[in-house]
Structures are given as C-alpha cells and as structure tokens.
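Example 5.3 — 8-oxoguanine deaminase
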Amino acid sequence: MTERVWLKDPIAVLADGAERGIVVENGKIAELVGKGAEPTHPVHKVFDASKHVVTPGLVNTHHHMFQTLTRAHPAAINKELFPWLQALFPIWSKNVNPDNLRLATRLALTELLMSGCTTASDHQYLYPKGLDEAMDIQADEAGKLGVRMTLTRGSLNLTEAEGGNADQNAVQDTDTILADCERVINRYHDASEGAMLQVALAPCAPFNVTKRLMVETAELAAKCNCHMHTHLAETRDENAYCLEHFGYRPVDYLEEVGWMSDRVWLAHGIHFNDDEVKRLGKAGVGVSHCPTSNMVLASGQCRTKELEAAGSPVGLGVDGSASNDNSNLMEGIRHALMIGRLTYNAESVTHFDAFRWATEGSANCLGRKDIGAIAVGRQADMAFYSLDELRFSGAGDPLAALVLCGAYKADRVMVKGDWKVEDGAPIGVDLGQLRYEHGQAAKKFLEAI
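Solution (predicted structure tokens):
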C-alpha cells in the first residue's frame, strides 16, 4: 500500500480547486481538495499547511553555476556583456577545476532549492583541461541534494584568434565535444515520466562556437531525442557580430544551422524584431527570460508577452551568478514582474504571469509535461512559503504578497513527494561548512586578477 499524505488547509495554493490542500501519493499529486471538501479516499498522514502559501516547485532554465566563484568580481563589475566576458574568461579558464566546480554546483543548487526551486538546468559550457567529467560531477551533486536537473552539456570551440571570443584555454575540439555529448546522453538522459536527470546539448553562443558544431549538435539531439539550448540575441553587440560575420541576424543563423525546433530553448532572447518573434513562435522555440542578469548587464528587455502570444514557451532563469550574483529564482520572479511592468504596463504583467514563467513555462522550455503545475498526475514538486516575516505584515493577497513583498526563501520544499527543505534549511546540508569551503575556493579567483 502506498502512503497518501494530505497537505491540509494551506493559506493559499497556486492552483484551482485546492483550497483545502493537496493529496500526495507515490511521489505524485493524487488529488486536489476543494473548498469545504475532504479527500475522497482515506489518507495515512496529514501535514498541517495552515501557515503556508503553496506554489509548484520553481524550474530554473538557465544558469552558469561555476560563476558563483566570481560574484561581484572587481575585474568585471559595471561592464556590459562583451567586456564582462573579456575580463572573466581568462580567470575562469585558468582556475575552474573539478573540485571547485563541485563546490560551485553544490552551492548553486542549494541556493536554488532554498528559494523554492525543484528543477534546475545549468549551461555548463566551460571545459578547461581536466574538467572532462563536469556533467558527472553535476549529476552526482544533484542526486545527493535530491533535486531534478537537466544536465546541459555546453561547449566552446571558437577562440578570439579564430574570430570568436572564447578563451583558448576553455575550448575543446568539435569531435571531442560531440563524443562526450553522446556519452553523457547514454549515461544520464532519462526520458521517462518523473525523471530526476535529463540531458540537453548546448553550444554556448554564435560568437564562440562554429556552425559545424551547431549543425552536428542538432543532428545528434534529433537522433537521441533530447533538447538543445544556446544563448541568442542577448545584446545588440551579438546582433552586430552576426551581421558582420554571417551577413544576417541571429534568428536567421538559428534557422541555417537547423535549430528552429520545439526541442530548442534560448537564453535571454532579447533583441528580436516582430517577424523574428513570429518565426520563433511558429517553430515553438522556447525562451529563458533572465531578468536579473539582463538588468545587471544592461542587455535589454525580453519581449515576453509577444513571444508567448506567438507560441513560444517562456521560462525563467537566474543566469550566471557573476551577472546575477545569486541563485534565487523566487527573487527572479519578482524581477520578472517589475521589468515586465516597466516594459509594458501594470495591468499587462501580473504576478500570475511571473509565476507561470517560473513554473509551467520553464517546464515547457525543458520539454517536461510532468512538472511545473499543481495538478492531478503531476509530480509532487512544491514550495511552501510562510508569511511570518515583517515584510508580509498587512498583505491582503497571499500569492501576490510572495512577489510584491519580496519572498526569497521557502520554509519547506518537496520533490517527488519527499521533503528536501524543512524549516528553511536543506536536509543533510551543513550550510556553514559549504559557505566556508566555497568561499575559500573563490579566493583564488580574486588572486587571479
């Protein structure tokens, strides 16, 4: 007999017809209990959720976890994307190694989990010598913490000397990249419902990978039925680069290399014109909106409303921790709301839009229909927030309060029906020790200036 648990009488739930809570069974949502109702079948346990506002587990669609080691780095602050990369690429390529990548991954995943995130995707494109097992490290860390992860096998193969902007110490040759992509897919990609690990292939950006790599990555992804990810149209500089080197804009590049597909999601996706938005939507190409990073680097404002209307899934990403400087997806929801209202108006972008981008929209970007919503049959991935802090005093609408009053930390987090955060702390993680070890590793990146 499987255990049925009633998460009873929450303050509010981001779902219709769940006023009295949610019943979880065998890692999935078995029933929504509506107003004035009781569960239709006996339950074995009851969790009193009366001090919690419950949302689906948040889904992060874009990150660079190794960059937690260079937060607020003196060499890169107050710069836009290209000079920012020029400052940091040499530091990353000479100092990222298996040990500090493990710490960076552990720290970033822990931060995400504590913010209410239950599924993460990391665009790990940096492969200096000795970092061949980056995906294995990340798979191991995600498994230990108990979060779902899309292992996004990134790549670089176009250096400054060859017309790109990647540091020569961070690149791999095309055949090595593709061989490892296939290895990682064969070892970790689980396409089944409820999978804890999946794999996506992710050449970094038009300005640091070759067309051959893009084309052959698309062929491999089609053969192995996995998703693809890349940066596109993040800045005007990138559009200018594409015009100078290819003779056309980034979306035309995407089409030429065979990436106009609903198995693709793009990071940032800011500088699209009306025709490009329509073409992306028609193809079902997803976009990971990264509001915090876009503001820090002054990259621009993503056309979220137009993209969704055209048919593109829109998700949220915290992006690299050196351009965001934290890994808090709940904070990203607030930033998405604020920049969305600045871009459009106060009525056109609501807290429900921002939540949707961070949950079901993000899940759609990753190609997952089993997560991202509190609904019968979905995986039991949920975040539970309390309203006990001073910032929430006087709040009338509990769900709106999470965004408008600035929630940043979940009280409890459930993944696949199991608690992974209790009383605001991740189970089995010594936060003090993690902070110390990661901080010590990060000192070397300051010494590298």
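Remark. The chain has two domains: 4-56+380-426, 58-168+187-214+222-365.
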